[in-house]
Amino acid sequence: MVLLGRPLVLVPKSLRYISPLTCRLHIYAPCAASTGVKTKTTSPKPSVTPIFRNAPIYGEKTALRDRHGDYTYMGLFLSSRQLAHQISELLKGKEQERVAFLCPNDASYVITQWACWMSGQIVVPLSPLHPEASLQYFVNDSDASLLLTTNELAPQLAGIAQSSGRKLLVIDDALRRLALKPDVKIDPSQVDFIEPAGPVTDVAAGLEDEFYADSDAMIIYTSGTTSTPKGVLLSYQNLDAQVQSLVEAWNITGKDNVLHTLPLHHIHGIVNGMMCPLTVGGRCTMLPSFSSSKVWAQLLAIRMKAADRVNVFMGVPTSYIKLIEEYELIFSKNEKMREYIQKILSEKIRLMTSGSAPLPSSVFEAWDKISGHRLLERFGMSEVGMVLSNPLNPTSDRRPGFVGTPLPSTKVKIVRTEKGQENPNEVKEEVLCEGDENGTKVLVNDGEPTVGQLYVKGPNVFQGYWRKPETTAKEFAADRWFKTGDTAQFVDGSYKILGRTSVDILKTGGYKVSAVEVEAALLGHPDIIDCSVVGLPDATWGQKVAAVVVTQPGAEILLSQVREWSRDKLPPYAIPTVLRVLDKIPRNSLGKVNKVNMVKEVFQVSDHKST
Ligand SMILES: Nc1ncnc2c1ncn2[C@@H]1O[C@H](COP(=O)(O)OP(=O)(O)OP(=O)(O)O)[C@@H](O)[C@H]1O
């Protein structure tokens, strides 16, 4: 084993190691993979560089810091290569098998993801936050041929592997420790299980370029806030397009150090927070999970060398709500501390983003006051990665409630759909506006609202739902436009998300109400700290607007007070007529509320279709 003192070797593509098992050409029709059946086509795709291929170029540069220590690009690369070798052996050299993996937020996650891709597998990231029934569903639905996990998380997968008769590989922690920087690295001579995967000067790995140009890379499951989670199949091309688009728009470079606190089974944590910096030679400082005190310590670089400080933070609205709570508790009483925080955050942190759920304007304003950062809100989803973003330049227009304009290489349009009167299966589509990074063209008369469903098109758009060809077909309009299921509006040069059409757009007395807009108005109330708005079936109105709120500790609120507060903020038909006060609103790890469940559980209404 010769892993110490590794030389930095740049290998031209033509000299890269190609597994003898993979010297076939893989050219598949887009979308066909969603059925699980590949169909050959003849047109080759542009080449794409899978993320691990860049690692040898960045060599001994630090790529990652986790709770154990620091890892270089080369360290992660070589450990991944060892694991790739084991995976190939277990899968007998087959590619495009699904490998479901459960790793904590640390280097073992990166090593596993890269190793699966080096051996040509489709990764299915699982989360330790999921209950056993969900893990079981993801494993079975993706039809994983192999399960991978670490020692610490093995108990969560062992039973599932056994009951479903699937192979389980528990990754030896020595692989992760081998990738640590030399000052803490373990002695490789004590590691005897690892077989060398080629001479150490041969830093190439993976399959041939054509494979990555035309293969699938990952299945991630949607949150399940509107229906049973679906497996979203993304190709290497999709992931590359999603990364490149953000790298360009947010100017992510090798100088960036991104503070990562997001779950690693959703696009936000995987692509935005982790793959973007690691593609361009930047750094990722990964916490095991979000903790407001730990995030504050990182942002203020408490007990930390300046060279190790983070300069980018990507959060969900709940992250900022928690940070504000901590600030109020610990720092806000001390004027000097307040000034210091403002100064350090404005000078040292270059970018703070929010997404995955609507950012309340009260949070936007409060964070601006504390940190001097007007949060950059963006919109995206599992199927398409990031689509809309506020501008990078903080002095330009970042407005609360708006998610900005299309990201590079992404096209969007807002479409009004209407069911045919004679044949309800026939849907009439009217395009209200259409845009890309160069601008949006409004196609309706001046003053007419551009409210409708958001459609997305581009190289970022996924291949299809895993083995659900009918659902996939339903979610695409002609010419590969993906129907997001979100209602959006283009107004004053920027896009607004009014919510999920199926659960957030309520119909009351003939009016359409955006639950997101009602929530934003109620969250401005000084006694309301959390809120979720749903529609309840009503014989007279079709739906009633119902608000579920959480109040400040010790505060009480009545429906009449909520209605009074809303009077000058909402149209009369959007003012809630039902109020429930809870201690806590159940949200998932990205801060999303499952409104179908909420209607059932809080209001005991079982027919969610009417919501
Ligand atoms: N900035 C934002 N503002 C408002 N909503 C957002 C924003 N960013 C993301 N979202 C919401 O998150 C959704 C994408 O999340 P995800 O891909 O996890 O699917 P989901 O809606 O949670 O799950 P499912 O499709 O199973 O219901 C978007 O469609 C949108 O509704």
From TrEMBL:
Superkingdom of the source species: Eukaryota
Molecular function, one GO term: medium-chain fatty acid-CoA ligase activity
Species for this entry: Megalurothrips usitatus
InterPro entries, per database record: AMP-bd_C (IPR025110), AMP-bd_C_sf (IPR045851), AMP-binding_CS (IPR020845), AMP-dep_synth/lig_dom (IPR000873), ANL_N_sf (IPR042099)
Lineage: Eukaryota, Metazoa, Ecdysozoa, Arthropoda, Hexapoda
Family under the similarity heading: Belongs to the ATP-dependent AMP-binding enzyme family.
Protein name per UniProt: Malonate--CoA ligase ACSF3, mitochondrial-like
GO BP of this protein: fatty acid metabolic process
Pfam family, one: AMP-binding_C
